[in-house]
Amino acid sequence: MNDLRNGWKNIDEFAGIPGIGITSVDKFIQGRSVSIAGKVRGIFVRDFIFKTLAFLFIALNLILGQSDSDIWLINAILGVLLVVFTMLGIKFYREFRRSADPARSSRDNLTSLLTFLKRRFPYAAIIAATTYICAFLPVILLYFNVAYGYFKPFTPERYIVFSFIGILGTISGYVLDMRAVKHHIQHIRICLSNLNDNALALASQNIELKRKMDHIIIILIQVVILLGFLGVIVILKNVLT
Amino acid sequence: MDQISGHKVSFIRLLEENRGIIHKICMMYTSNQADKEDLYQEICLQLWRSYRTYRAESKFSTWLYRVALNTAISSVRKDSRRVETVELEHTAHFVARDSEKEGMTRMLFKAVSRLNKVDRAIILLWLEEKEYAEISEVMGISQSAVSVRLVRIREKLKSIMKNLEDE
Fold it and tell me: By the 8 A CB rule, do B31 and B87 touch?
């Protein structure tokens, strides 16, 4: 072991390191992340970009579809839903930032990251997945408005096809995000079990505690999503038939 | 000079002062130059983000080791299917080239690179001659646990070394 320590002292610690200046600080701020926290942050950032685009499409529909009160109402409801989802998305992102603080001890850092990914991320992923349908519907409406100058009624077949695409996109988004995080959860679990035999048990206790506290917010999210989309479907059906 | 630029300048000074240890951490957790640069960049980014909220409640070195090691432990390779081992003896550059000693040390580093990520963090802090109290503060385990872990790591290294000699 002492040989190892002596060898460690003999390592040329500056080999291959570039100098650091203000420009390189800007460079690494813009660089791609290799850490779990960075990858999860990427999922949130991607969702916020999609949400911004969805807001843009909704705003265009609201401006262009002023003469059609039904289309205007559908977009207004989608807009309100998107505002609620964005607020929830920001809430989850703030929780994630607190959980992913690397300035704590390794055990605390890994435990809080694991608790977030196991207990909170699935709901954050649902919120992110709904962005797809909130963007897809306004895009379709905008397309018809631009292509035909008015909203072309759907045939029942088209109605089924578009609903299918919307639902498939939402489910795929959710599944892909969850799959990406599954690997990270496994990685953290291994590190925690390597760190301390008790650390994993402690993390499990925290997760269970958080699960109980989550019930109210889960029910609220489900009610908002269900009511919102039911409203949109009812209006859409009235417009199209 | 505005406040942000002043903040950046003081951060860069601290990075310059500590880049040797960041480099050693990167060396301990990566197997090639590209991965090393990625991890180096990631650690700097996390240090920059955390630096804005650094309140000097713990020693600066403890804070730096926490952020850097937590980032290294939770780093994931771009190709996650690749096996999570590194060949430290290939990435380390030695100042003096004493062939016999260097050979032995390279062998020891090869053994270290086969340890899990958490054990690598503990042995790195020990190599940096940190006291048990500081290792315990960085890792979040008790001082007695640190002592037990170091004994276990030593045993693991002996066993890996024996296997390497047999190969």
Answer: yes
User: pLDDT digit string (tens) for A19-58?
Assistant: 555 556 666 666 666 788 888 999 999 999 999 999 999 9
**Domain contains A20:** no
Which residues sit opposite A11 in a β-bridge?
Answer: B94
Flag whether A14 is in a domain: no
Shortest CB distance from A15 goes to which of B69, B75, B93? B93
Which of A4, A32, A102 has its CB closest to that of B70? A102
Nearest beta carbon to residue B139 from set A6, A37, A105: A105
If one counts the domains in chain B, the total is 1
* pTM of this structure: 0.76
B122 closest CA partner among B100, B102, B84, B148: B148
Angstrom distance (rounded) from CA A101 to CA A93:
12
Q: Is A46 on the interface with B (CB under 8 A)?
A: no
* Structural domain harbouring A213: 33-240
**Tally of domains within chain A:** 1
CB contact under 8 A, A7 and B101: yes
Please give the structure tokens belonging to residue A101: 């603080």
Q: Is residue A172 part of a domain?
A: yes
So what's the ipTM on this one?
Answer: 0.79
Taking only the tens place, the pLDDT of each residue in A166-224 is 888 888 899 999 998 998 999 999 988 888 755 556 666 666 666 666 667 777 777 77
Q: B94: domain range? A: 3-166
Question: Across the interface, do B41 and A195 touch by the CB < 8 Å criterion?
Answer: no
Look at residue A126 and tell me if it is in a domain. yes
